[in-house]
Amino acid sequence: MTKTEAYEKVVKIITPFTKKTDALKTVGEETRILEDLGVNSARLVDIILAFEDEFGIAVDDEAADRVRTVGDAVNMILQKAGA
Amino acid sequence: MRRVVVTGMGVIAPNAHGLDDFEQALREGRSGIRFYEKLKNLGFVCQVGGIPGGVDELKRSYFAEEALLAMNSNMIFAGIAGIDCWRDAGFDLPDRVESPVDWDTAATIGTGIGGVDTLGDFVVPRVNEGKVKRLGSTTVEQTMSSSVSACLGGILGLGGQVTTNSSACTTGTEAIVNAFFQVREGRAKRVLAGGSEGCSHYIWAGFDAMRVLSRGYNEQPERASRPLSASAAGFVPASGAGILMVEDLESAQARGARIYAEIVGGHVNCGGQRGGGSITAPNPAGVVRCVRAALATAGVRPDEVDVINGHLTATMADPLEVANWSVALERAPGEFPLINSTKSLIGHALGAAGGIECVASVLQLSRGFVHGSINCEDLHTELQAYAASIPRETKEVQARILAKASFGFGDVNGCLIFKRWEPDASRRYH
Which is nearest to B189 in space by CA: B261, B107, B123? Predict the structure, then answer.
């Protein structure tokens, strides 16, 4: 799995949880999931579950807590998936 | 004491969505009862029900994808009726993230059973499989009793008291009674009030097991809901939502709002499960006291009531209900007001029933008609004397006073007195 593939899947997973949908037009690795995309903080749980399903990984609470930006999510996934 | 009026309404019912469609459905006697294969496959005795149609498409025009991730059928019905009511009252839908809080509007949206579909389809199977983590973040907000009011409060940015009441089948009417007093006492300018109930076989199963649901009409669903009839064979379970904007008259007039009707009285009580009452049956003395107290609050004499929109579910309690009304109003069969059952068209929407039926009541009062009750061509023998008061076809009637009541498990009663809006009357003290 390339970083680009992981990035595209991450954005696709986060998209339905986004309240500030306009921000998706300029999304990038630096985009903050809660602040910039308006994702309800409780929904991070669902996003992490979706990552686990999509990438076949297990994400512990500590790793999940470190995810702030889209890039954080991509890097965490690549590390867990051993790519 | 403030005067209280209805300035907006929203309804999603098994036979219609929206006020104009609902009026048309009431006028033409359109049944919303359908056969459901799933109920047959699951071994239900009653295989018919009332579920609003087209909601899967409709919901996408009301709610963002993000919001729908955490909305079960109960919340979707409450949301659609609430948004419709809000717009009908003359307000624009606010931006979900950036708009200011409306500190002047409260909401009491009741529900009888709540998010049982979420529990049955999602929570119970996963928890029993030891997969608690797989529940994700959305189950609490869908299964808490206040899910319906919380959901609507967030969409509209409401800053008054946002709450959910629950009193079985009295719920929707009780919500509006509570809102009436809240506004009357000056504790809120406006309250969105009514009831909602989701569609779930898990809700309906317990009633089926109690043998209180319709039997014998699975092949003829539109004939299955038969209040007032000799062949009434249990109620037809239903779902949906009905919500009223209950508003202070001064506030309504100051903003030039359209006024549908005045709420002049209301009361809720309990029969104490004594005197023939139980957790599943009403104490007649409680019903009579409730109706009389509502009239007393309104300053309306029993002989002034023109129309009753009854609870009338199609169980053996219908003749008893009519007898209770007769005692409460001190009006014998020959002088009894018109009485109808909206449930003959939509079934029994449980916690939503009072809300949907109050929308029907106010529509009838404001648009000058009394809808016919269908499927009671064979009136119950104990009701033969009341035949002239039970329209089987819709009548054009300019009624002045309408009494609406709901009764529920727990021996609880709720009654509202609506008055036709007469603009000139606003100048004199009521």
Answer: B107
